[in-house]
Design a protein that fits this description.
The protein is α/β, with parallel strands linked by helices. Helix content is about 35%, strand content about 20%.
Length: about 250
């Protein structure tokens, strides 16, 4: 079987501009939707190549899965990043790799998170309406800050999503997340993180993993020998995770 022929469409879903990537035959509805969010400072379409690669790794996914890639609501043009976007402000200490008090940071609700949550929830609702898929057939995921906001949303939706993919994310709003996670018993989570991440240290990823496991979520944790990036084998594992969410 050759590489799937993919289509990319720009559209507005809920409050955000999104890129849609799929290889579905014309007229066919997806069986699974994946809402994948980029990290702080990245352009809106940063993860479009990754979505295409995930579909190419398992061509049957391209026949059944639609990727939706929202652009974060905040522009970083005033910080010298004309195409950079942000879900919510990040402390300079993190961006400079100088954050020291991670336990305190993990307990905070970052300013701007509630607005980002509302915007992403509007995207998820619009995806469900457009595809006729229940939330139980929608996977949420993201890289770095995108992993933070998708974790926050996955724990708060009125219905449990199909799965959650956290790529180089970290724990925030810990008291709220612990409370919300109690209603997410058994939620499948794929979490990957580089052992040498200088921005969001590996220990913070382990803290996030342990928190979710303690509250009853099912976490497949994949450490890799890298920094703040997305690893090739991590993508392979994520593709397998999505294939498992499709079922037979």
């Amino acid at each position: 079987m050759g590489a799937p022929k993919l289509r990319r469409v720009s559209t507005r879903l809920g409050e955000l501009d999104c890129q849609v990537v799929e290889g579905l035959p014309e007229g066919k509805s997806p069986e699974l939707a994946v809402v994948l969010c980029h990290g702080f400072g990245a352009p809106a379409g940063d993860l479009v190549p990754m979505a295409a690669q995930l579909l190419a790794m398992h061509p049957p996914l391209a026949q059944r899965v639609r990727f939706i890639l929202p652009g974060a609501p905040l522009s970083l043009a005033d910080r010298g990043m004309p195409t950079g976007r942000s879900w919510f402000p990040i402390p300079d200490a993190i961006l400079l790799g100088q954050m020291r008090d991670w336990p305190a940071f993990a307990k905070e609700v970052p300013p701007g998170l509630p607005a980002a949550r509302r915007a992403l929830m509007s995207v998820v609702a619009a995806v469900s309406a457009a595809t006729k898929l229940p939330y139980s057939k929608i996977v949420l995921g993201g890289f770095s800050q995108g992993g933070m906001v998708t974790t926050d949303v996955a724990l708060r939706l009125e219905e449990c999503p199909a799965g959650l993919c956290i790529l180089s994310g970290t724990l925030i709003a810990e008291p709220e997340w612990r409370q919300k996670a109690k209603a997410r018993q058994g939620l499948p989570v794929f979490q990957g993180h580089g052992r040498y991440d200088p921005l969001l240290p590996f220990a913070t990823a382990e803290h996030l993993r342990d928190t979710l496991v303690q509250e009853g979520l099912s976490v497949d944790f994949f450490p890799f020998d890298g920094q703040h990036t997305i690893d090739d084998e991590e993508q392979e594992r994520m593709a397998a995770f999505l294939k498992a969410r499709l079922g037979s």
